[in-house]
Design brief:
single chain, alpha+beta, about 40% helix, about 15% strand
Length: about 300
C-alpha cells in the first residue's frame, strides 16, 4: 500500500449529477476498454434445489412462461440455472462483511509513489472537447456503475477545498459499520490519491498494508470543464459496494463540508491525539445522513 508510517498514541454519497439530457455518443468510444477475465475452463453440473423450484413457482409470471421455462430447462439446463442464480443474486441485498483479519503484506511500491495517474489512460480525451460537464459526468458515472468501483464528479471549487484539507489532515480514521459493530479504516492522502486500509492491517504491516480501497482524483478537466473526476477501486474480499461508497461519502463530508464537530475530530486526530476518542468518531458516523444531502452543481461553484 502507498501508505507512509505514522505514530499515534490512539492506534489500538457521493457527488453526482442528475442527468437532464440524453447523450448521443456511446461511453465505449470515450472510455478505454478494460481487460476481460478469462472464461472458466472447468464446469460442474448443477441441480435445482427444492427451495429454488418453490421460489420460481411463486413468480406471478411462472404460469405464463412455464412452457418456455421447461423447454430451456430441458435443452440447455446450464443456461437455465445460470439465469436463475443471476436473478437470485440480484434479489439479495448486500450484507455487511465480518471484521477483517490481517492480510498479507504488500511489497514496497516506492517506485510508484511519485507517479501521478493521468486521465488519458482512462478516457479518450480528444472526444471530450465538445462535451459539457454534465455529459462527461453522465458518461463517467454510467461507465463505472457496472464495475467494482465507486465514482464521482466533483465541482472544481469543492475539490480545491478538499485538497487543502487533504494536506492539512493527511491521515485520518473512518468507522465502517459491520454486523457486530464498527471496523476502523485508515486513510492517507498523497497528491490526488487516497489510500485506505483496515486498521488491523495497518497495525500489522504499516506502510506495506494491503489496500481495501484506492481513490484517484483526475484534475485534467478542472480548468476547462470545471469538474474533477474521481474513481475508487475496492477489494471485494474486504468491502461490498455500499461499504466502499460509505468510505467515499465520509471523505466528501469530512473534507469538503465538515460540521464543527467533525472538524474538531480532524484537528484532534492530527494535532492532539490524546483528546481523540473512537466513541466520538462513531457518534458522528451515526449523525451522518449521506443520501439526504444533494450534490452541489458545478455551475454553482467558482
Amino acid at each position: 500500500m502507498a501508505l507512509t508510517r505514522f505514530s499515534l498514541n490512539i492506534v489500538k454519497t457521493s457527488f453526482k449529477f442528475s442527468p437532464s439530457s440524453a447523450i448521443r455518443i456511446s461511453s465505449n468510444q470515450l472510455l478505454k476498454p478494460t481487460v476481460s477475465q478469462p472464461s472458466r475452463m472447468f464446469t460442474t453440473s448443477k441441480v435445482l434445489s427444492k427451495e429454488q423450484v418453490e421460489e420460481l413457482q411463486k413468480n406471478p409470471f411462472f404460469d405464463k412462461y412455464a412452457e418456455k421455462i421447461a423447454k430451456l430447462q430441458k435443452t440447455n439446463p446450464e443456461e437455465f440455472l445460470d439465469r436463475l442464480e443471476a436473478k437470485s443474486a440480484k434479489s439479495q441485498p448486500d450484507k455487511p462483511k465480518d471484521f477483517s483479519l490481517p492480510g498479507a503484506a504488500k511489497p514496497s511500491a516506492r517506485d510508484e509513489m511519485g507517479k501521478q495517474k493521468t486521465l488519458d489512460k482512462v478516457m479518450n480525451m480528444s472526444l471530450l472537447a465538445d462535451k459539457t460537464a454534465e455529459e462527461i459526468a453522465n458518461i463517467w458515472n454510467e461507465h463505472f456503475a457496472s464495475k467494482d468501483a465507486v465514482a464521482a464528479v466533483i465541482p472544481v471549487g469543492t475539490y480545491k477545498v478538499m485538497q487543502e484539507r487533504f494536506k492539512e489532515f493527511n491521515t485520518f480514521l473512518f468507522p465502517l459499520p459491520r454486523d457486530m459493530g464498527y471496523e476502523f479504516t485508515v486513510v492517507q492522502f498523497m497528491g490526488h490519491e487516497a489510500h485506505f486500509t483496515t486498521l488491523i492491517n495497518y497495525q500489522a504491516h504499516k506502510e506495506n498494508a494491503p489496500e481495501c480501497l484506492s481513490m484517484v482524483h483526475y484534475t485534467e478537466l478542472a480548468e476547462e470543464k470545471g469538474i474533477v473526476l474521481m474513481v475508487g477501486e475496492y477489494d471485494k474480499d474486504v468491502l461490498n459496494p455500499k461499504e466502499a461508497k460509505c468510505l467515499a461519502d465520509q471523505v466528501e463530508i469530512y473534507y469538503s463540508r465538515p460540521s464543527q464537530a467533525k472538524l474538531d475530530l480532524l484537528n484532534k486526530f492530527t494535532s492532539s491525539p490524546q483528546y481523540f476518542t473512537h466513541a466520538d468518531l462513531i457518534s458522528e458516523m451515526n449523525n451522518i445522513e449521506i443520501e439526504a444531502v444533494p450534490a452541489v452543481p458545478a455551475e454553482q461553484t467558482n
